[in-house]
Amino acid sequence: MVELLFFIYFATLTIVSSILTIGLRSPVYCSLALLSTLLHVAGLFVLLHAEFIAALQVIVYAGAVLVLYIFVIMLLDLKTAEKFLHKQVGIAIFFGVVLIFEILIGLFQSPLFSSAPETGPITEDTLGNTAQIGIALFTKYLLPFEIVGVILLGAVIGALVLAKKVPAR
After folding, report:
1. Structural domain tally of the chain?
2. Which are the contacts of 93, defined by CB distance < 8 A and separation ≥ 6?
3. Distance from C-alpha of 137 to C-alpha of 129, rounded to nearest angstrom
4. Lowest mean pLDDT among 2-11, 22-31, 78-87, 106-115
5. In the structure, how many helices (H) and strands (E) does the chain have?
6. Which terminus of the chain has a smaller tally of CB atoms within 10 A, N or C?
7. What pLDDT digit, counting tens, does each position of 75-85 carry?
8. What distance separates the 2 farthest-apart alpha carbons in the chain?
9. Is the pLDDT of residue 105 over 50?
């Protein structure tokens, strides 16, 4: 029952902070709402017994990628007085409410609320571990992993080119 309460907490705040990410006026506040979203998603991974993925979520996304976003916001010097996008926020709120209802319906149909016995005991092998993730990443998913590395390298080079000041002639 405690896991259910934690799930409802993490799922609700993930959706709320996602809506705030696209709805707030200030880009810095949007980044903070995105940080909240990423941290609550990491909490959902912990509930799924995927602690390694939760740690990666916090380190890679909440740490590195969000710092890159804030760097771009400071580099572009975005104005905070931009128009508030009411139409997009209304659509996002609608889909957020629909998503919350779907999650609640799925919860009530889950094995947590049924009296049927579980299919089997959960062993240490069924839970993900670092070695299994590393083996899968560098065997089955090696090509997509390398492609993502090349794309990120191109993004860094592009950011450096855009950030470079052209001397006046």
Report:
1. 2
2. 19
3. 12
4. 78-87
5. 7, 0
6. C
7. 776 654 445 45
8. 78
9. yes
pLDDT value at residue 81: 40
Residues 97 and 134 both lie in one domain: no
CATH number at residue 2: 1.20.120.1200
Tokens found for residue 163: 């950030």
Does the reported pTM lie above 0.70?
no
Say yes or no: 109 and 133 in one domain.
no
pLDDT in tens, 147-158: 888 887 888 787
In terms of domains, do 44 and 91 share one? yes
Report the C-alpha gap between 84 and 23 in whole angstroms: 7
Same domain, 83 and 141: no
Is there a single domain that holds both residue 14 and residue 91? yes
CA angle 68/73/74 to nearest 5° reads 100
What are the Cα distances from residue 25, in Å, to 3, 40, 62, 89? Answer: 34, 22, 21, 11
| pLDDT reading at 168 higher than 70 | no
